[in-house]
Amino acid sequence: MSWDRLGERIVQLHDDLRTYWPHLSRLAVAIYDPETDRLNTFVNSTDGDRQLRNYSARLTDVPSLKQLADTGKPRIKQQLNTPGGEMSPHTRWLLDAGFASSYTVPLYGNQNLVGFLFFDADRTNYFTEAMVRYLAVYTELISAIITNQLAPIYILRGALNTVRHLTLQRDSETAGHIQRVGHYAQFIAFKLAPRLNLSDEYIEFVLQYAPMHDIGKIGVPDHVLLKRGELSREEFEVAKIHVQCGMDIVDSIVQEFELGDLAHIDILRNIIATHHEWFDGGGYPIGLAGDAIPLEGRITAVADVLDALTTRRSYKEAWSFEDAIAYLQARAGKMFDPLCVAPLIDHIEQLKEIHDCFKEGGEPPPTS
C-alpha cells in the first residue's frame, strides 16, 4: 500500500465502523516527535468538514495524554463537556466541532511511543464495553498500518545516518545542524499549510527528509569540503557534485533495501536535488526558477541557510536571528522564495526554541 493511499485506507476503516456505530464521527492519528516532545496531527477521517489539521502541541503540555503515554493504557471520556478543571485546546476544539465523547489509545512501535489514535463520537456515553472490545481489533490494524509505513523511513534514515556520520567526521557541519534544518523546515511548512492547503502527511515527511539534504557531501574531496575560505570557481564546481552524489546514495539504498514503495520518496529526492536552486533561476544544478522548484526544496533552502547563519562554525561566529532573517529577506525573490521566508519574520522566539532544543554542547546561543 503506498503512502498516498493511507488516508483513503483510514477513511475506509472509518466507514466500516460507522456501519455499526453511525455516531462514531471521527477517527484520527497524531504522530509523536520525541526530539521536540511534540504531537502533530497526521491522518484523519472525519464526518463532514470538522477536521483538525496542522495542529501541534507539546506532550508535556497535555497532562492527560502524557499520562496515557506513561501508562500505555487507553482512556474513555464518556462526556467531553465536564464541569470544572482545565480544558485542553484539543478538547475545546472537539466540543466546538460537536463531538461529545472520546476513546483515545496510545500507539507504540518497538516499545516507543509512536502517537495516539483518537475515536470521537457526537453522542455522550457512546463507548460501551462491547464497542471498545471491537475497536481494539481496529486499533491493532491501524497501529500496524502506521508503523509498517514508518518503518521503511526509519530504515532509510538509519542507513543515511551512517553515511552522515562519516561525513560529519570531515565536515564542519554538526548533528545539531541536521536536526535543526529538519525542524525549521517543518516550522515553515506548518506556517504555509493554511495558505497552500498542505496536508499533515506532507509536513511530517518534510520533517523526516529535510535533514538528509546534504547527504552527498561525503563524495566531495577533502581539499574542497574542508576549505575554510571562499571556494574558487573550480572548487565550487567540484562542490556541486554533492547533489548528484546524494541522489545516487539514496537511489542505491532504496534499491539495496527494496524500499521502492517508500512513503513520498519524491519529497526526499526533491529536497536533495533542488535545495541549492535559486528562486530567480541562478542556482544549481539545473537552474530551476520560481514554482518550478518543488516547494520542499524551496523550504529546505531557507531552513538550511537560516541555521548556517545562526550557528557558530570554525570559520565564523553565530549571527543573531534578527540579522539572519534580514539577510534572507534581502535575498527573497532572488535566492529564496519570499513565501518561505515570510513565516520567519514574526516568530523569532519559536525559532530560538528550535535552536536551543538541538544546541551543540558548548555552543553559545546566537547573540541578539
Task: Look at the structure and give the mean pLDDT.
Answer: 87
Based on Cα principal axes, name the global outline. Answer: elongated
Query: Describe the biggest sheet?
Result: 6 strands, antiparallel
**Unreliable segments of 5+ consecutive residues:** 362-368
Helix content: 40-55%
From the N-terminal CA to the C-terminal CA, the straight-line distance is 49 Å
SSE ordering: HEEEHEHEEHHHHHHHHHHH
Radius of gyration equals 22 Å
Strand order, sheet with most strands: 3-2-1-6-5-4
The number of helical elements comes to 14
Question: How many extended strands?
Answer: 6
Question: How would you describe this structure to a colleague?
Answer:
The chain is α+β, with helices and mostly antiparallel strands and 368 residues long. It is 49% helix and 12% strand. The longest helix is centred in the middle third of the chain and has 40 residues, at 129-168. It is elongated.
Keywords:
368 residues; alpha+beta; six-stranded antiparallel β-sheet; 14 helices; 6 strands; disordered C terminus
Topology (elements, then pairings):
Blueprint: H1 6-20, E1 24-33, E2 38-46, E3 56-58, H2 63-71, E4 75-77, H3 89-96, E5 101-109, E6 112-121, H4 129-168, H5 175-196, H6 200-209, H7 222-225, H8 233-239, H9 241-256, H10 265-274, H11 295-310, H12 321-330, H13 338-341, H14 348-357
